[in-house]
Write a structure and sequence with these properties.
The complex is a heterodimer of chains A (about 110) and B (about 110). Chain A has about 110 residues and is an all-beta fold. In chain A, about 0% of the residues lie in helices and about 55% in strands. Classes of the chains: A mainly beta (about 110), B mainly beta (about 110). Chains A and B meet through β4, β5 and β10 of A and β5 and β10 of B.
């Protein structure tokens, strides 16, 4: 079952902040975040691991609530280059799910001058 | 930059014909993945591989088969293409790095008429 992302779309002016949420019904080992520009491949932003470790992009932050199986991506002081579709990918706890990501449906972020 | 290519990049085929998509990597990564991307569905895992001749199904594997006879190549085959398989197909590798990120190929746009 896919994780649920919210909101589905958000429109910002340069310099404004945004939060994108990702919620799963499964027990999670990690949450990945990716950004995709139109017509391009998704690009890795960061990973959050069970236990609190966070690795990835320096200018974008995120959180992972292990009890609620929820993650949030924080985009502060948005730039035009932040525009794109953001996907969370969840990796479930348990040996059979190692290496497999289930992606949310995506959040379209548009930043205007 | 992880070396990953997909071929062909674009293909138009008729219903009922077999189609094979190729993913090639140059860095001997163990894990490789095939996703399809459709509007409103995000990225959905078709099949993945965790080594030569070691493959497993994803969430939308019906109508698809895969093979991995060499570390560097992961093939996706549509035995008898249907219009519902019109999509953009992405191959990805899992980088054995500090982030365990998935790195995506450029994608193949497949149209089944």
């Amino acid at each position: 079952q896919q994780p649920v992302q919210s909101p589905q779309a958000v429109i910002l002016r340069e310099g404004e902040d945004a939060v994108i949420n990702c919620s799963s019904s499964k027990a999670l080992y990690s949450v990945h975040w990716y950004r995709q520009k139109h017509g391009e491949a998704p690009v890795f932003l960061m990973i959050l691991l069970k236990g609190g470790e966070q690795k990835g992009h320096e200018k974008i932050s995120a959180s992972f609530n292990e009890k609620k199986q929820q993650s949030s991506l924080y985009l502060t002081a948005s730039q035009l280059s932040y525009s794109g579709t953001y996907f969370c990918g969840t990796e479930e706890s348990g040996g059979t799910s190692y290496g497999k990501l289930t992606f949310g449906q995506g959040t379209i972020l548009t930043v205007h001058p | 930059d992880a070396g990953i290519t997909q071929s062909p990049r674009h293909k138009v085929t008729e219903t009922g014909t077999p189609v094979t998509l190729r993913c090639h990597q140059t860095e001997n990564h163990r894990y490789m993945y095939w996703y399809r991307q459709d509007p409103g569905h995000g990225l959905r895992l078709i099949h993945y591989s965790y080594g030569v001749k070691d493959t497993d199904k994803g969430e939308v594997s019906d109508g698809y088969s895969v093979s991995r006879s060499k570390t560097e190549d992961f093939l996706l085959t549509l035995e008898s293409a249907t219009s519902s398989q019109t999509s953009v197909y992405f191959c990805a590798i899992r980088l054995a790095s500090t982030t365990d990120e998935q790195y995506f190929g450029p994608g193949t746009r497949l149209t089944v008429t």
